[in-house]
Amino acid sequence: MLKLQIIPFGIIPEDLLNSIKDELKNTYNIQATIFEKVEPPKEAYNPLRHQFQAGKILEFLSQYKTRVIGITDKDIYTEDLNFVFGQAQLGGNVALVSIERLNPMLYKKFPDKKLLIDRTIKEVIHETGHTLKLAHCQNSRCVMSFSNTIFDVDKKTKNLCDMCKLQLGI
After folding, report:
1. Fewer CB in 10 Å around end: N or C, the chain?
2. How far is CA 64 from CA 18, 68, 94, in A?
């Protein structure tokens, strides 16, 4: 059984972390442990953008020397995108998901914890899939499909399609 450490950055609800832990076991048979909250590295913050660079947080997470996924409440980006919901090392041990743009309140909607948890689980399963060598899937309902907008996140399911399962041998 694979093992993974969940590392919270910022204020992450405990029920969200526990839901992530459960879904990682259900989807990938990964035994996850929740670490204590840490602060993102200061050098990852870009004051001009008011965002954190995902790659620098991934570098920071690499120090753990185990399979890890960081969960942050900070807005993250990559050099070629205005924002990302998450990022991972393809075939590596490190992934990151931000709940900032998954939160319905960002889109002037009422607080909806269930929707936030559902969206976060999809992105955690997606980014963890990348660490297991899964690339983006063309099936828009597959959790491994690329999400460019929150509508893409909502459209896909939390499940792997048959082709992605086949690649993983499950």
Report:
1. N
2. 21, 7, 9
- Structural domains of the chain sorted by starting position, each given as residue range(s) with its CATH number in brackets: 2-120 (3.40.390.10)
* 43 in catalytic set: no
**Is residue 108 predicted with pLDDT exceeding 90?**
no
Residue pair 98/76 in contact (Cβ under 8 Å)? The answer is yes
Task: State how far the Cα of 32 lies from the Cα of 82, in Å rounded to an integer.
Answer: 30
Contact criterion met (CB below 8 Å) for 59 and 82: no
Q: Which of 36, 100, 123, 127 is catalytic?
A: 127
pLDDT tops 90 at residue 43 = yes
Per the CB < 8 A criterion, the answer to whether 87 and 76 are in contact is yes
